[in-house]
Amino acid sequence: MLPSSPRELAGYIDHTLLRADATARDLETLCAEALQANFAAVCVNGSRVGFARRCLGGSGVKVAAVVGFPLGAMTTRVKCLEAEGALSDGAAELDVVLAVGQLKDGARDHVRRDLAEVVRVAGVAKVKAILECCLLTQDEKAMACRLAEEAGVAMVKTSTGFSSGGATLQDVRLLRSTVSARVGVKASGGIRDTATALAMIEAGATRLGTSSGLALVRGFLAGGCETEWS
Length: 230
Prior knowledge:
The protein has helices at about 5-10, 25-35, 50-55, 75-90, 100-105, 110-120, 140-150, 170-180, 195-205, 215-220, and strands at about 15, 40-45, 60-65, 95, 125-130, 155, 185-190, 205-210. It is of the alpha/beta class.
């Protein structure tokens, strides 16, 4: 079901800032916007988790940290150490990049174990597996979904936003049709307007990763669906 208010749409959004040149002031703005709109989470690099958590105070907005970002080519041990550090600093969710090269090698056991170890470290924290769909064939995307679910992830995610392509409706539909109902689908990369966001949700996305969160909810208002923010 599509969101019926800007607040419902905000609940789908991970307000994201992963640029290498992002400053503390940029992060303060990100968190202030997340508090204003009541987004599901802010998504930041690991070194910024503690800062973001302090900016958000005791609010219900979660901090999500990326792990193995953006290539997924680190060793499992390094991914686990990165995850542990982010959790210790206050992350409630982890967006971890799947071992893309090993998937393309057909090393299914490695890909599954790599994700499963991060899930183990995460405990109750949600783990989202970033598949980087733009680098995969249709069969590889489906296999990545199956391995990620077997590893115990909470969501599969289309893209890092740092490679050659972002979220597509085709990929969201494929991911949604491949994983079971217990696994969410996060569309990420290139979602900059309300129409695209709603189309992604209609295709099966349960979470949206975007740096344009405020534009999406303001676009909902501008479309005449609601007259008040809340």
